[in-house]
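As a next step, the fold was encoded as tokens, giving this record:
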Amino acid sequence: MSESVKFSFYQVDECGYYSWGNSSPVFGSIQELLTDLLHWSADKSIENTKLYEPQVGSDYLSTYLFDIKCMGEDWLVTTWNEVPSTEAGIASVIRDSSVTAADVIMNRIQDNSIPGYATYFWILPDDGLFASLRFKKRTQTGQQPFRKYMEQALSLISSYVRYGEDGVDDSRQVIGYAPVGEDLVSPSPSPRFKTSLAHDVGNRQYIRENATRVSKIIRKETLRLNHDDERQWWQSALSRLGISSGSDYRRTDDVNVKYELRPEFFDLQKVDSMMEEWDGSEPTRSEWDDYGFTFKGDANKVHWLSYSTLTASAELNVVWDNNEVVNSESLLSVLTAGKAELLRQIREE
């Protein structure tokens, strides 16, 4: 079945075990980590692949390893991301019910099941890249939980992990990291898994080099109106338009806004600050969110930060195991076959 798929590419900046202050690993690599995950998960049930408890207040719940496949030098990792639920089931709101009088229904959860959704990561160790894949207009990539999961895998289950004696409750304590057959060193290197959006350096460099020529800044952002501070921002903006009541004023869903500023003074420091803020929001921002810049002498051309990120799209003929999960073997097969074309897209944009 042919499916439209969107790819967002990331660089693997660090993966392994690092001494304090060093940017090169003492040992470890993405290839070794994936191989360790494959072997570790071979006899595991899904519930036993959870490697960390989500922090209180986190936007994400637990993450599980759903599947992992290797074909040649390329890998596909599928994670399962738990979603909020209660004993009564998963809550849904009727689309056309009224604000302040919404109809909510509870969808039953089958016993011994984990409500959630699958996310897919195509990993290319030789290129130092991986891509998150989005099917069926889904906006969530699961990239932040995936990054946390991989870091925890380095910390707890890789072949470099050294455990002490079993505790009184049969728990095992990590005492350090070292290659098989080698002694621990002190201080022990620390596990790191860090990634960043892959960028088209040329577009960003042009914006930075022309920072003092910025004539207009365009901001697009998605306000989450179920958050008090963002709802107050939205209501304040409506009040300035003379709207202080009604359904728009009482909205609690997400809303896209766009506004412009013509700065009297702008410089490289401000551009770098905006780029840093936008990059940092990557795990939670929507596809709408963006910064645009126009420059003196070329006011009709907008240079968007989103144009700097490496993305691709393709129609892939994949097999669905069910309504939620793509068959990983079929997916990795078509990705490998179309690899040259997909990489050509990101290298030409």
Q: What stands out?
A: Residues 28 and 264 are 50 Å apart (CA to CA). The chain has two domains: 2-83+116-198+310-348, 201-308.
